[in-house]
């Protein structure tokens, strides 16, 4: 297919009243970002901009044994792929219950006896979410970077000085981490939303990969590091039209068959991409396992498709409300609330809407089924999940409980997700840690919110609206997770990147998490910082 010259997106973000400061220090209140928060109480109520659901805490066992992995010294990679999702029986409203035929023995073992502060990492990773910004900033097209007013960057909010080229700045930080972490990171784990606003099409895929991936992360320090990726909602249409050849020119689908074709194409264009830089882009399927073994420690990364989530997930993707709102000349302010049958939801075409929902639900069901099998068989020292959504921040009770039970029954060490453009750390009653990690520079950041719902308790929320990512360091006994952002030496140049003076890394919240054969919540690092660091602040 011939390619036309890509057109840079002109979609703009609605202005807000948030004020910004580039100061370091102080606290900031959580922004009013829509989330689904699941509470362990017998009530359902709308509170603020979130919805609080009831769910019953599971009585399942809290610790799972996995076989001890053998020693090894060279970093290796094993990728497990699955059959196409078209072989599945899709379910539109809930995940199909699956019973594992493999069970793990339950033990009551305490935490490791070694001192985590004295650990020597055997391997390291970087983890980043929501990183793929729009293009055209050099021509003044703000795109996903910034708050705008009347179609222009809102310079009344000083945070634009950081926001405008935030993806570039985070890439610079990641290169610094790659030098400072020992050993060098073996993988970069990406949580999705790789291409704002609405994903890529056949006509702009090559251009977008070159501009916002290859050129953006071209630092020598990052050379040779594989990127382990999943998709987010903005990779498969966001809330705009699904069909068409490139972003900013996507259009209304003419039929259900065409809609399914382009929905799958959004994913396939990323999954089939081959990076010219040491083949570093990895997205084998909607679900796959990436095994990393180095210096006697093995980590299994279970990559899941959770785009069936209830907060800005399948319903918003399938409704395509922003596209239909423009078609019918109505406000898109209510797009979070439209549903199948509404004029702003796929033009009122219920059959097409259900077909889209079934397709995305099938991806999630397949991820769950495959993960249940592979997690039970895993002999890794650490089992981590990489996906776009959080069970308690972005899912209603049935879906949340299903994923909770999987992490509990399979002894998952940690769950990493993006979607919310902020940072937080929650610990479950059964020992799985949940990290929200969605401020990678693809879109302007928000403040996150704390969750204490009877299943998880909050240990940290990234105050202000910082950008950054997580550094993961593994020994045989411990996983160290630490937030990384800008230090005070940075000077940001706004829309003129030549005026930016790079600084270094400010490390913040930090936690040691025990390996899969141990129990307990772990321990906070002595060097952990829980107050506001980085930039911008509110």
From TrEMBL:
Pfam families listed in its UniProt record: Metallophos
Tree of life domain: Eukaryota
Gene Ontology molecular function: hydrolase activity
InterPro entries, sorted: Calcineurin-like_PHP, Metallo-depent_PP-like, Metallophosphoesterase_PAP
Entry annotated with the keyword Signal: yes
Keywords: Hydrolase, Membrane, Signal, Transmembrane, Transmembrane helix
Domain Calcineurin-like phosphoesterase: 125-422
Keyword Repeat (UniProt): no
Transmembrane segments: 36-55
Protein name per the record: Aste57867_6927 protein
Protein's organism: Aphanomyces stellatus
Gene, per the UniProt record: Aste57867_6927
């Amino acid at each position: 297919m011939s390619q036309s010259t890509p057109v840079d997106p002109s979609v703009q973000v609605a202005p807000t009243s948030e004020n910004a400061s580039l100061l370091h220090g102080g606290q900031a209140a959580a922004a009013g970002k829509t989330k689904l928060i699941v509470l362990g109480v017998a009530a359902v109520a709308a509170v603020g901009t979130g919805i609080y659901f009831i769910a019953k805490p599971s009585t399942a066992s809290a610790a799972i044994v996995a076989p001890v992995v053998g020693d090894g010294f060279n970093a290796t990679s094993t990728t497990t792929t699955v059959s196409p999702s078209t072989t599945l029986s899709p379910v539109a409203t809930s995940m199909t219950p699956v019973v594992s035929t493999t069970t793990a023995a339950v033990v009551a073992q305490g935490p490791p006896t070694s001192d985590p502060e004295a650990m020597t990492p055997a391997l390291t990773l970087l983890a980043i979410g929501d990183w793929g910004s729009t293009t055209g900033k050099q021509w003044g097209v703000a795109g996903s970077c910034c708050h705008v007013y009347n179609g222009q960057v809102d310079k009344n909010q000083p945070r634009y000085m950081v926001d405008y080229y935030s993806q570039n700045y985070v890439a610079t930080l990641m290169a610094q981490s790659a030098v400072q972490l020992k050993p060098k990171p073996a993988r970069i784990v990406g949580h999705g939303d790789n291409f704002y606003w609405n994903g890529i099409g056949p006509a702009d895929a090559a251009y977008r990969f070159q501009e916002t991936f290859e050129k953006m992360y071209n630092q020598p320090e990052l050379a040779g590091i594989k990127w382990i990726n999943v998709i987010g909602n903005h990779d498969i249409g966001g809330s705009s039209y699904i069909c068409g050849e490139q972003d900013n020119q996507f259009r209304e689908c003419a039929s259900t068959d065409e809609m399914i074709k382009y929905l799958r194409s959004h994913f396939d264009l990323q999954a089939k991409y081959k990076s010219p830089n040491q083949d570093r882009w990895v997205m084998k399927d909607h679900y796959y396992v990436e095994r990393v073994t180095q210096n006697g420690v093995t980590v299994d990364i279970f990559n899941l498709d959770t785009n069936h989530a209830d907060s800005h997930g399948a319903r918003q993707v399938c409704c395509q409300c922003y596209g239909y709102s423009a078609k019918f000349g109505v406000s898109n302010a209510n797009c979070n609330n439209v549903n199948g049958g509404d004029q702003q939801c796929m033009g009122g075409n219920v059959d097409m809407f259900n077909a889209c929902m079934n397709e995305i639900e099938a991806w999630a069901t397949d991820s769950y089924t495959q993960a249940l099998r592979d997690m039970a068989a895993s002999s890794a020292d650490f089992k981590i999940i990489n996906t776009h959504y959080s069970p308690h921040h972005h899912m209603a009770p049935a879906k949340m409980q299903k994923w909770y039970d999987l992490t509990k029954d399979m002894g998952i060490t940690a769950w990493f997700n993006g979607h919310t453009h902020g940072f937080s750390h929650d610990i479950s009653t059964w020992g799985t840690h949940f990290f929200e990690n969605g401020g990678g520079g693809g879109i302007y950041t928000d403040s996150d919110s704390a969750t204490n719902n009877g299943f998880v308790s909050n240990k940290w929320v990234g105050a202000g609206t910082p950008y950054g990512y997580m550094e993961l360091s593994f020994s045989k006994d411990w996983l160290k997770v630490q937030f990384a952002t800008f230090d005070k030496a940075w000077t940001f140049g706004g829309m003129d990147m030549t005026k930016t003076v790079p600084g270094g890394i400010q490390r913040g919240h930090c936690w040691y998490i025990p390996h899969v054969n141990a129990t307990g919540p772990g321990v906070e690092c002595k060097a952990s910082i829980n107050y506001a660091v980085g930039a911008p602040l509110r």
